[in-house]
Amino acid sequence: MLYSSLAALIWSVYYVGIGMLGGLAFGRDPLLGVAVGIALALLLGGGIELVRRLRAGRTASTGTVSRRVPAATDA
Fold first, then answer.
1. pTM value?
2. Residue 26 burial (CB count, 10 A)
3. What is the phi/psi pair of residue 68, to 5°?
């Protein structure tokens, strides 16, 4: 419970800080802040997906075997 409380405190301080910075940067034009936030989310998500696909393609082209462990079944 101690670690969960600490994590919640850190998370809340982090997001309050982001909100304060966003408020200072886009206080007079909140729609611009929304547009910037959406654009950053799309760029970050797209970049992560691009790296993931490039790594998966490289693994498939080199013929290496994935070291993933199959999920356990109840059968």
1. 0.59
2. 16
3. -70, 140
